[in-house]
Amino acid sequence: MYEGAIQDLIDELGRLPGVGPKSAQRIAFHVLSADPADVTRLATALRRVKELVRFCTVCYNVAESEQCRVCRDPRRSEEVLCVVEEPKDVVAIERTGEFRGRYHVLGGAINPLEGVGPDNLRIRELLARLGTGSVRELILATDPNTEGEATATYLALMVKPMGIAVTRLASGLPVGGDLEYADEITLGRAFEGRRAV
Amino acid sequence: MYVRRLELVDFRSYERVGVDLEPGGNVLVGPNGVGKTNLVEALGYVATLASHRVATDAPLVRAGAATAVLRCAIVHDGRELLVELEIAPGRANRARLNRSPARRARDVLGALRLVLFAPEDLELVRGDPAERRRYLDDLLVTRMPRYAAVRADYERVVKQRNALLRTSYLARKTSGGRGRAARADAEGPAEGGGDLSTLAVWDTHLARHGADLLAGRLELVAALGPHVTKAYDAVAAGRGAASIAYRPSVELPDPVPDRSALEGALSAALAESRPAEIDRGMTLVGPHRDELTLTLGTLPARGYASHGESWSYALALRLAAYDLLRADGVEPVLILDDVFAELDSGRRERLAELVAGASQLLVTCAVADDVPNALRGARYEVSDGQVSRAD
């Protein structure tokens, strides 16, 4: 145990995801020995993230104004909407450069064990967006785990009657890898989802 | 397949021990409590990454040590594979294959195929249905690793679905009488997601993964049945024949339908039991409620069989698994922990006949004379913390 401020900092850092007690200590002492200007910049960044970042009023991605960058961009297609669980999934899909439609961030997945039901996600907001009639295809890009699959099934049940095409991302082998290194679960799924060439 | 050498560091009672084993018969002799079963347990751990005796890893590490190390040289088709495992309670185990680190400890699964019979297996016959389901599922995964994912997916869906049912059950109980949950269900999802509005979604997934698991188990039981009957006949004193049957919680048409029809049957059963499930707050149909029935003559083994019969039945289940894996073309290592003391000489000979020709057989016993001559190969004396060759 250290005294006062340094221990407070270690405790706070230790609360962050992925930071254990040893890492917290290392970061704290790094901060202590760093240039005061650097530390001020870090402190400002921390404060600003809470003050300035909001959620986009259209898609609920993180944004710095009313709407996020994607929703403000008039070149993006209104016809294709991609549903993801978290803002970080938007970033991942944007990195592909493939997708020119718009997003909807649910804020999680249906998970009864954690007490998360459809009411706790932005599903009502999604249905309202789809109700305007401009969307032709809904891409379900929730995580390929039990909760993400359940969420996708739930959305498909709700949306299909509206006459909108609903698609789900494929799951299978990573590109550029060796077949032999794929684990049996991934390889088994890839077998299931094989297609004619 | 056979284990050429096993080394243990800080595992159970052993500080450091190494044993060179032979293909064919190996007999470990020693008085009770000197650590014969610890050697067996170590091999079991290499094969399954779990102990057959305890649920957590902490008891496996010698008191006072931080980690235990298992090193096992396995010869398969003339090639040797060295598996090294470091067991660290509370942390992820680390594994190396032929001296290079494996990405996950799970990657060593399949390196050693093993069938182990131990006194704890009496629970297969006397214990809850869960014991027999685990026996089936473990064997299913050994034969087809894909089922590890099917089983995990299914268990997760059941857990989520139960959580949903339980939450609504509790909500109803506290709000008194017919509460919000029952109403939301009646009005459907359009109501804006009352508690049970997602139940249909979980039903779909339960039926899909459940049908997959059910199809696997049904196929397995059909293949396993004759082997069980044969093995029991050999090791039991011969009162009545043993037969196994899969008893699903869902009524299935005869003959057993294909996977998509199973999915339909599960969906229908879920729809039918929905009021009861909402009432009781748990999932009442599906493979997690199924049973493997063990019959002896015309009576169920559970409850009716004597101690000797139950014990023979448990042994027959393990021997049948061994037979089946052999028929698939893998030659697993067979371990019989403390078996021969329970058998009279006639049954000893018959068991010996059944397992003779095993690529490797490990037998533990307190008295060397209990082991039939046909199975005597290499002999080892086990004493406190030491294993030495004794022939």
Automatic annotation (TrEMBL), chain A:
<dbReference type="Pfam" id="PF02132">
    <property type="entry name" value="RecR_ZnF"/>
</dbReference>
<dbReference type="InterPro" id="IPR034137">
    <property type="entry name" value="TOPRIM_RecR"/>
</dbReference>
<dbReference type="InterPro" id="IPR015967">
    <property type="entry name" value="Rcmb_RecR_Znf"/>
</dbReference>
<dbReference type="InterPro" id="IPR006171">
    <property type="entry name" value="TOPRIM_dom"/>
</dbReference>
<comment type="similarity">
    <text>Belongs to the RecR family.</text>
</comment>
<keyword id="KW-0233">DNA recombination</keyword>
<dbReference type="Pfam" id="PF13662">
    <property type="entry name" value="Toprim_4"/>
</dbReference>
<feature type="zinc finger region" description="C4-type">
    <location>
        <begin position="56"/>
        <end position="71"/>
    </location>
</feature>
<keyword id="KW-0227">DNA damage</keyword>
<keyword id="KW-0862">Zinc</keyword>
<keyword id="KW-0479">Metal-binding</keyword>
<dbReference type="Pfam" id="PF21175">
    <property type="entry name" value="RecR_C"/>
</dbReference>
<keyword id="KW-0863">Zinc-finger</keyword>
<keyword id="KW-0234">DNA repair</keyword>
<protein>
    <recommendedName>
        <fullName>Recombination protein RecR</fullName>
    </recommendedName>
</protein>
<feature type="domain" description="Toprim">
    <location>
        <begin position="79"/>
        <end position="174"/>
    </location>
</feature>
<dbReference type="InterPro" id="IPR000093">
    <property type="entry name" value="DNA_Rcmb_RecR"/>
</dbReference>
<dbReference type="InterPro" id="IPR023627">
    <property type="entry name" value="Rcmb_RecR"/>
</dbReference>
<dbReference type="Pfam" id="PF21176">
    <property type="entry name" value="RecR_HhH"/>
</dbReference>
<comment type="function">
    <text>May play a role in DNA repair. It seems to be involved in an RecBC-independent recombinational process of DNA repair. It may act with RecF and RecO.</text>
</comment>
TrEMBL record, chain B:
<dbReference type="InterPro" id="IPR027417">
    <property type="entry name" value="P-loop_NTPase"/>
</dbReference>
<keyword id="KW-0067">ATP-binding</keyword>
<keyword id="KW-0742">SOS response</keyword>
<dbReference type="InterPro" id="IPR018078">
    <property type="entry name" value="DNA-binding_RecF_CS"/>
</dbReference>
<comment type="similarity">
    <text>Belongs to the RecF family.</text>
</comment>
<keyword id="KW-0547">Nucleotide-binding</keyword>
<feature type="domain" description="RecF/RecN/SMC N-terminal">
    <location>
        <begin position="2"/>
        <end position="369"/>
    </location>
</feature>
<dbReference type="Pfam" id="PF02463">
    <property type="entry name" value="SMC_N"/>
</dbReference>
<protein>
    <recommendedName>
        <fullName>DNA replication and repair protein RecF</fullName>
    </recommendedName>
</protein>
<feature type="binding site">
    <location>
        <begin position="30"/>
        <end position="37"/>
    </location>
    <ligand>
        <name>ATP</name>
    </ligand>
</feature>
<keyword id="KW-0238">DNA-binding</keyword>
<comment type="function">
    <text>The RecF protein is involved in DNA metabolism; it is required for DNA replication and normal SOS inducibility. RecF binds preferentially to single-stranded, linear DNA. It also seems to bind ATP.</text>
</comment>
<dbReference type="InterPro" id="IPR001238">
    <property type="entry name" value="DNA-binding_RecF"/>
</dbReference>
<keyword id="KW-0227">DNA damage</keyword>
<keyword id="KW-0235">DNA replication</keyword>
<keyword id="KW-0963">Cytoplasm</keyword>
<keyword id="KW-0234">DNA repair</keyword>
<dbReference type="InterPro" id="IPR003395">
    <property type="entry name" value="RecF/RecN/SMC_N"/>
</dbReference>
<dbReference type="InterPro" id="IPR042174">
    <property type="entry name" value="RecF_2"/>
</dbReference>
